[in-house]
Structure formats: structure tokens, C-alpha cells
Design a protein that fits this description.
Elements (H helix, E strand, L loop, with lengths): L2 E3 L1 H30 L8 H25 L1 E3 L13 E7 L6 E5 L10 E3 L4 H6 L7 E6 L2 E11 L1
Parallel strand pairs: 1-2, 4-5
Antiparallel strand pairs: 3-4, 3-7, 6-7
Amino acid sequence: MANQLSQAAFDRLQGEYDDLTTRGRIEIARKIETARELGDLSENGDYHAAKEEQGKMEGRIMHLTSLLDEVEIVESDGDTNVVGNNNVVTIRYEGDDETEKYLVGSIEERRDGLTVISPGSPLGSALLGANLGDTVQYDAPGGALSVQIVEIEA
């Protein structure tokens, strides 16, 4: 299954990938070379820190590669009556007075102040395709839960 991302998220991730595979790799290679010049590698904290940073960076590059290799660009169709990918949804749990706001989409779509619900999660799959005002149920570890869709934003 293709990774579904908005054009904005795709562009941001592609830019991060390009930066890490060019400037990032050059910079980390310089750090490692500088640390090697300090002498004994077995007790060289700078060297070990640079190698750890390199490992984390390469892991992120591998993750971005897998995301971007099989990507499907999806945009919200602007319909605020039906929950779709990349919509912000306000829900109210059954028996609760307070509402909660979530972004339905990939974790890479994250926005400040919003928790992301994956479309493949139990709640996400229950919300997708539901209409404004609907009450949907999903299975949670503690049993079935019901939520009402209070608002949908494109």
C-alpha cells in the first residue's frame, strides 16, 4: 500500500531527504574525520558521538527513502461533511462533554497542537468516510468505544 501524503508533506520530506543525503553526509564525515585526528578512537568521545549521529541520520534517510519510494499524493477534497485523509476532525466520546481535535493522516503530516490518527488505526478507519454528526464505534483495548463527529475541517 502506498504512503498517502499531502503535497506539502511530500515536499517537506523530499527537502529533508535531499539535505541529509548531501549537506548532512558531508557534515558528519567532517565531524568523524576531525574526531579521528584527536587520536585513540577507543576513548574518543567526539568520535563515538559523531558515529552515533551518523547512524541516526542514516536511519532517518532509510525511513525517508521507504516513505518517498511508494508515495501517493492525496489532498483533502475540501468536503467538510465527510471525513477523509488529511482532515482535522473534532470528536466527542460518548458520555463526555469535552471535544478533542485530531488530524486523520500520516504521522508525517503532523501539525502543531494536533494529535495524528493514522487512517489504518481502529479509530482512524472508523472515522474515514463517516459524515458530520455521525456516531461511529471502534474497538479499543478496553472494549468498544463510540465517538460523535462534531466538526470536520479541510
